[in-house]
Amino acid sequence: MDHLGVLLFSGEDAQSFLQAQLSCDVANVGLRSSTYGAYCSPKGRMLANFLLWREEAGFHMALSRDIAAAVQRNISKFILRSKVKVSDASDTVALAGAAGPQAEGALRGVFAELPKMPTETYRDSDMGTVIRLQDGRFVLSTARSAASALQQQMASLLQSVDARVWRWLDIRNGLPWVTAATQDRLIPQMANFELIGGVSFDKGCYPGQEVVARTQHLGKLKRRMFLANVAAPAAAGDDLYSEDLGDQASGVVVNAEASPDGGHDLLAVVQTASREGSTVHLKSLTGPVLRFLALPYAVA
Q1: CB 46 within 8 A of CB 39
Q2: pLDDT per residue as tens digits for the range 15-67
Q3: Cα(223)–Cα(294) distance, integer angstroms
Q4: What are the residue ranges of helices labelled H in 77-185?
Q5: What CATH superfamily classification does 220-300 receive?
Q6: Rounded to two decimals, what is the model's pTM?
């Protein structure tokens, strides 16, 4: 999954530093657990979202590879006197995924143990770390030097596919990824990130926390993320339009991939009023119409 990069946060102050920077409760992330989270601007807009887990070497953050370097530079500005080092491990850590009804059985033939519950992790000293996602899939993190051996073992047990399939599964499971095209445009709740455990409302302050908390307490959002299909190519950052708002954009495509059923499936942040009472089009008022589908979790 080379569309994702990995940042490594090491040093004795890594936990306290990240706790003050991220939307998730880093204090609850131990050596056997993981969490989704967001890194926000002071205005509460996501500069990145990520999957975070802990190993002996430190905290690993998987995020869209096209923004990894920028996030590393930005977050490093706030280290000051903290004993923390932020390094880009994208070229030394390899990520892979396993999904489908045979995935767990196949992994049991490779790893001595598997995490039993969603968000749990297991670290094998030889093969790497396996993370069980909330939707039942698995993320595998291993050293690049060991990736070839792991791939060979898995290839005899599971069908090998490219990253487009994994990205499509993310979309169907309602898991968004902030990329360069959508960076600094969405607050976490617009992308349903609080619904999948990416925001803690019980921890202390972090950049954008006041905006995120105020949005949560205001009630129903004007914009939410929905799953849809469109009979045309679509890409992250494409604007969406609806009759009720005329020439004013009513939303944006967060992620999109070709669907095996035809067209493109996408995650789209849209005005809820437009979603409920109008027709939403891709790129223009005369563009292809979005056909909305059911997400695997409830959207208030």
Answers
A1: yes
A2: 999 999 999 999 999 999 999 999 999 999 999 999 999 999 999 999 999 99
A3: 17
A4: 103-108, 144-155, 163-172
A5: Aminomethyltransferase beta-barrel domains (2.40.30.110)
A6: 0.96
